Amino acid sequence: MELPASFVDYTRSLLGEEEYEKLAVALQQEPPVSIRFNNEKWKMQDEGLSAVHSPFDRVPWSSEGVYLDERLTFTFDPLFHAGCFYVQEASSMFVEQALRQYIKEPAIMLDLCAAPGGKSTHARSVLPAGSLLVANEVIRNRSQILAENLTKWGHPGVVVTNNDPADFADLEGFFDVILTDVPCSGEGMFRKDPVAVSEWSPENVEICWQRQRRIISDIWPSLKPGGLLIYSTCTYNTQEDEENIRWMRDEFGAEILPVDAPAAWNITGNLLAGEDFPVYRFLPHRTKGEGFFLAVLRKPEGETVRIRYKSTV
Question: Which of 226, 209, 213, 207 is nearest to 308 (CA)?
């Protein structure tokens, strides 16, 4: 894989020479394969693991996630089609930690950019009983895939929608939790998807961080005061990650919350110079996964303020 020169220069300056060289080596390796069991259908602790993978490595931050030694032909597996497990990138399973730590009572949750359904099926598995998940996808054909995967998963407390983020603004203060896995430049997908490499450019990064702020501005009014916004991307740069978190803190008065993460997990923290608020970045040379980024923000208590971000995108 030949990485874009601008990406190399920026990421080397962000991580430092030694860390960048380790990342570059990792990006030339095969990505790990991981699945997450549906314990309502096929319990990981019972026959599931011995049937699909032995010996196995657990995904440390997921109660039902495991790594496989190789990528299987999942489309030929009736258990896959029955919703007994979901093929999901391991680092994105870290969403579970935020939900388990902060959501203790039944909640109404919106997964805003939900297709194909990995995080939605996962969230539905760990939300308290009595919760409702609204899984949304703006692209129509992808929303149909989302609906199919959630149907296979089998939990009844789910609604699938096909709306633009701005459509939710009138549901003022409606959601307890919003997960925004926003469209990004996809740097964390480089070793899984050659198209992500060919489509990357500094200009696309610029478009992405502006689009991300527009999405957050559109959806912010529908979050309850005191509610949680979980922000995630699959990219490394600070423009789409830390700088957007800082912007939400300064623009909306959001509180940036910590998520419990043992040092043994080797999750990388804040890379933005002069800032130390908690964020969680998975770098493939340090953790067994791809380039996932996550931060958790709490909306301040009090009156909902409508804010519209003006961008050129």
Answer: 213
User: What's the full length of the chain, in residues?
Assistant: 313
Positions marked catalytic: 234
Tokens at 151, concatenated: 């149907």
Q: Which residues pair with 133 in a beta bridge?
A: 109, 158
Torsion-angle region of 64 (φ positive above 0: left; ψ -120 to 50: alpha; else: beta): alpha
* Both structure tokens of 303: 């009156």
Report the phi/psi class of residue 266: left, alpha or beta, with left for phi > 0 and alpha for psi in -120 to 50: left
Burial of 77 (0-12, 13-18, 19+ CB in 10 A): middle
Structure tokens that stand for 106 in this block: 């039944």
Residue 137 CA, chain-centre distance (Å), reads 14
Tokens representing 28 are: 């030339």
Q: What is the pTM of this model?
A: 0.93
pLDDT per position as a tens digit, 77-122: 999 999 999 999 999 999 999 999 999 999 999 999 999 999 999 9
* Amino acid at the residue 117: G
d(CA 299, CA 177): 10
- The helix (H) or strand (E) run that includes residue 209 is helix 202-219
Q: Which own/partner contact pairs does 11-19 have at CB distance under 8 Å and 24+ positions apart?
A: 11/187, 11/236, 11/237, 14/236, 14/237, 14/238, 14/271, 15/271, 15/283, 19/283, 19/285
Phi, psi of 6 (to 5 degrees): -65, -35
Contacts of 249 (CB under 8 A, 6+ apart): 255, 256, 277, 297
